[in-house]
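Example 3.
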Amino acid sequence: MTAGTAAERSRTQVPPAASDVTRPPVIAAADAEARDLAELCEQFIGVCESAVDPLEISSALEFDGLNDQAVRALYGFSDVFALGEEMYRRVPRRPAEPEPVADPWRISKLRSAMHGLIYGLPAVCFPAASGLLNGPGALRVLVIALLSSWALSQGLAHLGYARLGLSDANPAARVLLPGMTAGTGATGLVMTLTAQTEHVDLPVLAFGFGLGAYMLGATVLMVLGAERLLLLVLAPAVLGSATFLALGRPHYLEYAAWGALAATPMLALGLATWRAGHESGLFGRRHGKGAKSREDAGRLITAADLRGALPSAGFGLVVAGLLVFPVAAALPGHPNTGAVVASLPLALSMGAAEWTLVWFRRRTQRLLRATREVSAFAYWARLALLIALLRYLTAAVLLTAAAVAVATAAQLIHPHWAIAPQIAAYLALGGAMFVALLLQAFGSRLFPLMTCTAALAFEVLCRAPRVLGQLTVCVGLLVVLICYAALVLGKAIRHAC
Amino acid sequence: MKIAMVTEGTYPYSFGGVSVWCDQLIRGMPGCDFSLMAIVATGAERMVWSLPDNVTAVNKVPLWGAPPAGPTMRYRNAVPDYLLREFIDSLLDTSTEAQSRFADLLRELFEFSKHGNLSAALGSDKAIRLLSEAWRERPPGPRETAPTLHDAISAMQLLDHSLRPSCHPLPQADLAHAVTNGLAVLPALAAKWRYGTPMIVTEHGVYLREQYLQNRTSPYRWPVKAFHLSFMRRLCALGYSEAAAITPGNVYNRRWEEHLGAEPARIRTVYNGVDPADFPALSGEPDLPTISWVGRIDPIKDLETLVRAFSLVVQEMPTARLRLFGSPPKGREHYLERCQALTADLGIAGSVTFEGRVENIRDAYDAGQIVALSSVSEGFPYSLIEAMICGRPCVATDVGGVTEAVGDTGLVVPPRSPKRMARACLTLLQNHDLRRQLGAAARTRALNNFTVDGAISAFGEIYGLVGAALPRPTAPIRVTIEDPSGILLPRKAAE
């Protein structure tokens, strides 16, 4: 508040040198004349105006070198305490506001859009890989790969972010590296087990494994804030697939396209290993700190950490289930066009969801600083929650409309009104996922997991009136989540950070 | 004798004067068993001292780590409304009567924390609501700084973290020794209220004064600062009034202690001491006129004044040297850089050397004809009494217990006064006889008053008196039936 000014002023305030250094103990100001109290108050104006009580002024006076003897000699008060009381009485309180701290919730729209792209771009790869995926049981392998990779990567992301919150990137990187290795191993195991039961072709298994490997590598890069590297990772698969599709899937380019697809997971694992290794000091530092870090690595993941990551992994699994179930449950020969058209903009809209989440957080932080009553805060925070949801839904609707328009123009689909309920269901699901994300960001992890699980179970059990059932479930899920969020996020304490 | 010792931010997790003192005391009393409770910041601190054999346990209590798990979650918010409301009110109430209310309510909160989760209660929405209501009843400060909900949350978070040590009970002991006032007395108070364990409070610096100074640059708004400092003031006053003995490290601190209500009869000053065997008298002097300085390179040591003073010295004695022994605390090297830049600006970079840490501290005193101390705040500095016991005359600033240490065996000047300091240094550097005479007097004074044996025997006496004067257990102690089981056992340090 006033540090610095006091020190500066004190230089002029030290008693003038009168005689030679007296034989000790020298009293700080015994040889000086009486001083003006008003002048002292002026010198210590910042301290006095911001003081919470007289003792704070006495502390500042002492810290500046005024002791009891000096106070008696210069100002005629019995001690520093009496002088502090008088100054507290004389100078009215006019506390300085603390320096505004940098907003920790600043996130650029560009970064959010980049995240949206990162979530959405892989969708281009599926049609390009369709030549690979037409064997028997391919769909089931894909679903299994998707479910396991979402669960593993969400769990891994939780472990990483928990460390990131504690300190710098180093401990996060040290968790992520073994986590990614274990996750890749688990994906390989899952794929091998699937091959035992499904008797599918090797390319399908490889694709499933690649999907899992990409998700884990991408998670590591995201947690470490290396989005640009991630775009680099995506480049071969996305550009390769897009070129392949744009040229009308020419037969002679099929192997090249698949090669490009294979490059992305390998790049993801490679770059994630390099980056995490670099951050944790695994490479380049042979002595000292690096070596020590490796010693500690054994204790890095405890049972409690794994328990903490379970809800995240479960949530990843359930959300993947909610997303792919309508596609996977479609009857052979009757692909669910609506679901396919709607899931891409939904992935893209996760960028908008992130940005809206940050908007909401900044809004409530400002509210906390502007309101004095718990009830007023609850009202405004709930209103902000509703606006946040509307913002997200608007973005999702716009993205979906754009996707439908592009797909129609490219003659990929022939839209008809029958797919409208399917698209509405996906929008509701997007809204529900946004609210779940919000709740998780504010420390409420179990409720979204439980409700989403219930919704998925309901969908799986009552698959008869498919689209309508899905629509009902997703809207219901959204309503339940938003009501719960209104209840929880209306509490000021939830916004403490 | 079993002693439960409580430290905050010092022994055995960091270096510094207070840690040296703790180590000396424990080693000097091999007949006593010490169990340590060390209040630390995050819990990630590593032990930097090798512990003496008579330390039976170390319990590390972090203020800012994860909240302690409550004994049971069922009682999460069981703290009664009235208790929280009254406790908050006792902090906002500025009347003198509020101090005794605070004491009673804090004791009730202790009782609560034995079977409920105090941290969860203070971090609840209800606590925020109660504080914002209390603020409306007793508006703190002027209208422009009216507290917001954000302030209420910050204030309750600070209170929650400050009260964390009270959830970590001390083991049963003959006495509890808090080696600082403030948060360290919380566990000692709990032990006193629970078992009747008598409490000793030692202060090297004045805890409350340091709190005021630290909070001048706090990131919090005024109402939060006022609330937090009110808690600290009430707690320190309670520490003084509940202590069987208060042992400041110098007479200067007494003023604060008495001002906050400490009973003068219970205060006994015990000076820091050094081991004369480690510091035999220095025989010769360096060839060039040299000023030596020893300490941590930190703004509180005001090295800039010393450097400016030295630039004046050089004007009269061009061959003079200033040798600075010590290093800056980790992560705060910028002050060292500032001082180095200043020597360059003043054109004396060639005469001033930053020597860093020395293996044998005695060599640092040996390096100078005189030893200077330019601090703006000190308790009872070791570097001064070490220099004295070596027989080196000192020039020091008149802060804290410096005049008590130096007496008439050195020169004392006002702080932040380069001219005065320069003149004092020149007086000594130019007068060999005065140097010899003062150096010898300093050594005699230190040997008579500031030896480690003297300090330890004083504490042996105080321990004996305090331990004997209050036979345990005293008259019925409130509510000890609740939990005869394991909760009271000290939590093992999370090593």
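Residues 1-32, 285-298 of chain A have pLDDT under 50 and may be disordered. The radius of gyration of chain A is 32 Å.
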